[in-house]
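Exam review. A common question shows you a sequence with its structure tokens and asks you to describe the fold in words. Practice with the pair below. Do the first one on your own.
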Amino acid sequence: MADKKRILSGMRPTGPLHLGNLHGALANWIDMQERYDCFFFIADWHALTSSYENTETISDYVKQMMIDWLSAGLSPEKCTLFVQSHIKEHAELFLLLSMITPVPWLERNPTYKDQIVQLASKDLSTFGFLGYPVLQAADIIIYKADGVPVGVDQVPHVEITREIARRFNYLYGDTFPEPQAMLTETAKILGWDRRKMSKSYDNAIYLSDSTEQVMEKVSKMITDPARKRKSDPGNPEICNVFDFHKLYSPQPLVDEINQQCRQAEIGCVACKKKMAKNLIAFLDPIREKRHHYEERPELVAELILAGGSKAREVAQQTMEEVRAAIRI
């Protein structure tokens, strides 16, 4: 791994993974594990920043997320998979970094401001919520990651990490590299109601959904709203089902649906059934692997422990350097 650049990323365990998670991040991770020294972690401490009042589901979500990762194609032989809270060094570095991070850096964080508005029903006036970018910085630089795969909206998170690393190096000597944001392309995928696919909107198709559940959700998908009858020509470019066809159906069928819809040669119900067949075929291997791991909880536990051991070895080495730099 020494000749490979190291990348790090994580996900909060807030529920089962859906197609939006797969195409938004997980598919890129699966590709990256072939080319980089990858560290991927389940961010259970980060889940507390906005869900500190309800923690009873986090432990189960951690296990389910690991199963989703393994089922989708992440391999413990190709990357390091671990749980954030199992590596206590993250908390130690978070504490030390919090001593040197100016509060205005955190208050100007655009995500902080946005979530205060979006989650107005929750009491987010906590130090943990304000300071989560510092914990995020600790997560990244403790492994001396070269890059962090993110979407455009997450670039400010990486920039705060770079600023914190730069400040530490200025105060105590060069210790941390400044990680680069690695912009990743993601496929457009919406929920069955054409809003962003989200657990909170109850509009998601999950990697663990049964064939029956997938069929039911596809049947509710919104198509071209201007097309009232089968005899009306449709516009595939504004149809959510067609977007799914482009992801899961073979190109000849995509071309065929495109033409038939525009010429009113196929109805929306038939179009949905064709797409659902290909979506289910895509999900079948994932569900098969998921069943394998669900039947072997001891194997999942072993993999979590093994990944934690690999991550801890790196984190402990970094913290030895940090303590020496600070002289404590």
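Now try the second one, then compare your answer with the model answer below.
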Amino acid sequence: MKVYLLVLLVAAAVTYVAVPIVRHLALVSGALTPVRARDVHSTPIPRLGGVAMFAGFATAMVVASQVPYLSRVIDSSAWAVVLGAGLVCALGVIDDLWELDWMTKLVGQVLAAGVMAWQGVQLITFPVGGLTLGSSRLSLFSTIIVVLAVINAVNFVDGLDGLAAGIIGIGASAFFLYIYVLTRHTSPESYTSLAATVMAA
């Protein structure tokens, strides 16, 4: 558990340091969220916060890959997740600066999910009912659809400053605990898990 805590702290520290820098860049570039009728805040909020979060996530994954205890589970799938997250982050930056239309954003999301799935991060069985997908093509398409659903579910829910990050933080914490307990139960000789590492980051 201590090594996962290290990964978590690295991500938190890098994000904490990066936020003021990214905030300054957002103010200079005019990337501000205007106040809407449904918003709680009364002043425009700087955008680009995802850049700081991605910096923390990517740095934590690099550090994890150098830790002997975790390095054996950090494979191409881990870097596929980092690459997919980086593409979504880049798409978010472009949208924050130039307000992309929904079709362009959807195409970018499909590209990011497709790259991740193509590199091996795929849904093999459905969590409900344990249905195994019949082919690699079906697995690829199912993964892309699930990733798109999750991305847009978070986008639709987000309406307050920090709400999306809070929801994802809670979900990631619950998923991490589930993975950690499951790994200890199924592999008592080793508690290492790529999924737990990604969740900690």
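Model answer, second protein: The longest helix spans residues 2-29. Residues 2-200 form one domain. Full marks require stating both points clearly.
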